[in-house]
Specification:
NrtA/CpmA_ABC-bd_dom, 39% helix, ABC transporter substrate-binding protein, alpha/beta, disordered C terminus, five-stranded mixed beta sheet, D-Maltodextrin-Binding Protein, domain 2, 18 helices, globular, 424 residues, single chain
Length: 424
C-alpha cells in the first residue's frame, strides 16, 4: 500500500478544508489496535461533535504508511507510536518530516509473545518459577540461546512493529535485562501489528512485541505464549500519541485545541469500565479492529489468556486511557525515548539533539487546551522509575539531566548500531 491508496485501493482526496469559523473535519490515520480507542471513541460517541469537529478515520496497515501519509498531507492527524515524533525531529529514518505530539492516547497495551516451541525449551531449563515473572522468562530465554549457540543452531527471529517504536525498545530492554544482546544473540525484524500472529503461526518469526489485541490473538490460537507485559518492563512507558505537523497546529491552533478537549473527554469515557462493553463492540467492527468483542473486553479488563491451555493473568492497569495524567505529553518521557535511541545506536547524544527531542512533545498545547488538568510543570523533567509501582524491571532509574551516564550504566548496549534495516 502506498500513501496514496486507502485500504480498498481507491485514491484518497486531500483532507477537507473548512473555514476557521466553521466545523473542521480532521482526516486521521490509525492502525487497528486497542490504543486507538480514544480517537475512535471521540468520533463514534459524539465527543468531537460537541466541540464542533468531525474525525474521518482511515485504517492503515503499517506505521511507515502513517508517517508518510501525515508528511504528505494525506492525514491531518495520526495515531502514532510515541517515539515517531522524537525520531522525526531528530531527522532519523526514511522521510523524516517535522511532527509533534501535544497529547498522549494512553498507557500500556503491549506484551511480548514467544512461540509455543521456544517457550517449551525455556521450561526445560528449570529456570521458570511458579509465578509469571518477566525477568525469569528473559533469563530462561538466555539459557536457551546459549544452548543454541553451543549446538550451532540458528538464532530466533523476533518481530517488532517499527524501528522507532516503544515495542522495539521494550523488546530490547527485556532481552538485555536477561543478559541477551539484541544485536548478536537474536535477529530483529519489522512486522506490521495485524500480521504478527500469522507470522508466528507460519514460523516466519519466533516471537514479537506488539500492542493489544494481537498478543491475545496469538495465545488464543494456540501459537504463542505471553511472557512479559509492558507493565513488567516500565508501567509508565509512553505508548501512542496524537501526531500532527507543527505547521498544521499553528495554522489551525483553535481547532487543534478544541480537538484536545474532545480527546480528553473521550479518554475519560474510555477509562470508565461501565463503558467497556460499548467500546469493545465498536472496536470489534470490521472498519476498526475486526476482532471478537469478547476478546476485546478481556483486553480492556486486563485479563490475559497467556496461552490456549487456560493459563491466565490479571493486570488491572494493562491499558489505561486517562487516569494518572496518562494524556500528558511529558518531556522526560521523550528524553527517555532519546536515551534508548542512543543506547541502541540509532543516534548519538548532543545538545542539539536534546533541543530537537524537547520540541517533539508539546505540553504547552496541552496546557492551552486543558489548563489545570495538566500536572505541575516541575514534573516535566522528572526522574523516571523512582516510584515503587512504576519502576523499571532491572532497577535502573532514568535521570534526564545526565543521559550519557544513564546509557553508559547498562552492561548491554550497542557498540556500532542496529542490526536490521531502518525502514518499514
Amino acid at each position: 500500500m502506498t500513501f496514496l491508496e486507502s485500504d480498498a485501493g481507491s485514491t484518497l482526496s486531500a483532507p477537507a478544508l473548512v473555514g476557521e469559523d466553521g466545523p473542521r473535519v480532521f482526516r486521521a490515520g490509525f492502525i487497528p489496535l486497542v490504543d486507538a480507542s480514544v480517537l475512535i471513541a471521540a468520533a463514534e460517541f459524539g465527543f468531537a461533535a460537541r466541540e464542533g469537529l468531525a474525525i474521518d478515520l482511515v485504517k492503515d496497515v503499517s506505521w511507515a504508511n502513517i508517517r508518510d501519509r501525515l508528511a504528505f498531507r494525506q492525514f491531518d492527524i495520526a495515531h502514532m507510536l510515541s517515539p515517531m515524533p522524537v525520531a522525526s525531529m531528530l531527522g532519523l529514518g526514511s522521510n523524516p518530516s517535522p511532527t509533534i505530539a501535544p497529547f498522549s492516547l494512553g498507557r500500556g497495551g503491549n506484551a511480548i509473545t514467544l512461540s509455543i516451541r521456544l517457550f517449551a525449551r525455556m521450561q526445560e531449563t528449570g529456570l521458570l518459577g511458579p509465578q509469571e515473572d518477566a525477568l525469569a522468562n528473559a533469563r530462561a530465554l538466555a539459557a536457551v540461546l546459549k544452548s543454541l549457540r553451543e549446538r550451532g543452531e540458528a538464532v530466533p527471529t523476533f518481530g517488532v512493529t517499527y524501528p522507532f517504536s516503544s515495542h522495539h525498545y521494550e523488546m530490547r530492554y527485556w532481552l538485555a535485562a536477561g543478559g541477551i544482546d539484541p544485536d548478536r544473540d537474536v535477529k530483529l525484524v519489522v512486522v506490521p501489528p495485524p500480521l504478527t500472529s500469522d507470522a508466528l503461526a507460519a514460523g516466519a518469526i519466533d516471537g514479537f512485541c506488539v500492542g493489544a489485541p494481537w498478543n491475545m490473538v496469538a495465545s488464543a490460537r494456540g501459537v504463542g505464549r505471553i511472557v512479559a507485559a509492558k507493565q513488567d518492563i516500565w508501567p509508565s512507558a509512553p505508548e501512542k500519541v496524537l501526531g500532527l505537523r507543527p505547521d498544521f497546529a499553528e495554522k489551525h491552533r483553535e481547532h487543534v485545541l478544541r480537538l484536545l478537549v474532545a480527546l480528553d473527554a473521550a479518554a475519560r469515557w474510555c477509562d470508565d469500565r461501565a463503558n467497556h462493553t460499548a467500546l469493545a463492540e465498536v472496536l470489534a467492527e470490521p472498519r476498526y479492529l475486526s476482532t471478537p468483542a469478547e476478546l476485546l473486553r478481556h483486553v480492556l479488563s486486563g485479563e490475559f489468556g497467556l496461552d490456549d491451555q487456560g493459563n491466565r493473568r490479571m493486570i488491572p492497569d494493562y491499558i489505561g486511557f486517562h487516569a494518572g495524567h496518562a494524556n500528558y505529553p511529558r518531556p522526560s518521557q521523550a528524553l527517555w525515548i532519546y536515551s534508548q535511541m542512543i543506547r541502541w545506536g540509532q543516534t548519538s547524544f548532543s545538545h542539539a539533539g536534546l533541543d530537537a527531542v524537547l520540541s517533539a512533545y508539546r505540553p504547552d498545547l496541552y496546557r492551552a487546551a486543558l489548563g489545570d488538568q495538566a500536572p505541575d510543570t516541575t514534573q516535566d523533567l522528572r526522574a523516571e522509575g523512582m516510584e515503587a509501582d512504576d519502576g523499571f524491571m532491572d532497577g535502573h532509574v532514568f535521570n534526564p539531566a545526565d543521559i550519557p551516564a544513564y546509557v553508559a550504566a547498562f552492561p548491554v548496549r550497542a557498540d556500532t548500531g542496529l542490526s536490521f534495516d531502518d525502514e518499514s
